[in-house]
Amino acid sequence: MRRVHVIVHGDVQGVGYRYTMRMVAREAGVHGWVRNRRDGTVEAEVEGTDVQVDEVLAWMAEGPPGSRVASAQVTDAEATGARGFEVLPTA
């Protein structure tokens, strides 16, 4: 299993990014979470197989219609074995 921590910069709040990402993540079969940050970015952790994680990362680089992703910082994280994918409160 692979887990990554991602911070997405750009126009990514107020455009349905988190809730669309939850649908994409659940369809891909990954686990983790996504949330807005007070600095205007979106933060997420995604865990699954390499193929599953890469699929979600590809979507995150584009985002939903109405968003504009400027960049995404991806760092490896330790797999937790967590289940489910949730939208968390703003941090």
From TrEMBL:
It holds the Pfam family Acylphosphatase. This is acylphosphatase. SUPFAM superfamilies: Acylphosphatase/BLUF domain-like (SSF54975). One of its GO terms (molecular function) is acylphosphatase activity. It comes from the Bacteria. Residues 3-89 form the Acylphosphatase-like domain. The keyword Hydrolase applies. Keywords: Hydrolase. The active site is at R18, N36. Transmembrane segments: none annotated. Belongs to the acylphosphatase family. Its EC number is 3.6.1.7. It catalyses: an acyl phosphate + H2O = a carboxylate + phosphate + H(+). The lineage of its organism: Bacteria, Bacillati, Actinomycetota, Actinomycetes, Micrococcales.
